[in-house]
Amino acid sequence: NSGALNGLNSSENAAPADAKNLRVKLVLLGDSGVGKSCIVLQFVRGQFDATSKVTVGASFLSQTITLQDSTTVKFEIWDTAGQERYSALAPLYYRGAGVAVIVYDITSPESFKKAQYWVKELQKHGSPDIVMALVGNKADLHEKREVPTEDGMELAEKNGMFFIETSAKTADNINELFEEIGKRLPRPSQPS
Ligand code: GDP
């Protein structure tokens, strides 16, 4: 739907209507298979479907939440849909993003390495005030864990990121992830 895409592009530079109603582009980054699509579907639809591979796809999904201070945050969520393989496209993908969520799988050290790559990449090419979150997903698979919680915490701390472990399967910490991001978004200054 090009109308929606145009609307989104034009919102990149426009200030939100007011400080109580925020709108932000959020991109998900991380290895294929770490659960990016499942995190989005759990957040937006409250579903986990382990049997069908769902791709959020070419377009984006949006979801609005209300924070405790009654600020509303509309997330416009972009999934890479496999484009992480074409790293030359990546800067286009996260251009204009106010939030980057870097996801790894706690059972996969490889995916944690890839997360470290994305942190560097965003520091080089992302917007300087981007809010970054590091997410260790599949926390329900604790018997298969290969990435200690402390490693995630350390990477996040070093790079000024918010860190959380989630399970898109059980929905553990999924809403908390987006609420915490919402709290960390810069508020536009109100005209006095
Ligand atoms: P993406 O390529 O990063 O978008 O990954 P997907 O969302 O397609 O998920 C990849 C696979 O991991 C699927 O088979 C999911 O069912 C599974 N998966 C995703 N999140 C979780 C989770 O939190 N726990 C478990 N046990 N499996 C998950």
In short:
One of its GO terms (molecular function) is GTP binding. With 192 residues, the protein is α/β, with parallel strands linked by helices. The protein has helices at 2-11, 36-45, 90-94, 109-125, 149-158, 174-184, and strands at 21-29, 60-66, 72-78, 99-105, 131-137, 162-165.
Give an overview in words.
Keywords: Nucleotide-binding. One of its GO terms (molecular function) is GTP binding. Pfam families: Ras (PF00071). With 192 residues, the chain is α/β, with parallel strands linked by helices. The protein is 33% helix and 21% strand. It is built from six helices and six strands, in the order H-E-H-E-E-H-E-H-E-H-E-H. It has helices at residues 2-11, 36-45, 90-94, 109-125, 149-158, 174-184, and strands at residues 21-29, 60-66, 72-78, 99-105, 131-137, 162-165. Strands 2-3-1-4-5-6 form a six-stranded mixed sheet, with helices on both faces. The model is unreliable at 1-15 (pLDDT under 50). The structure holds guanosine-5'-diphosphate. Guanosine-5'-diphosphate (GDP) binds next to helix 2.
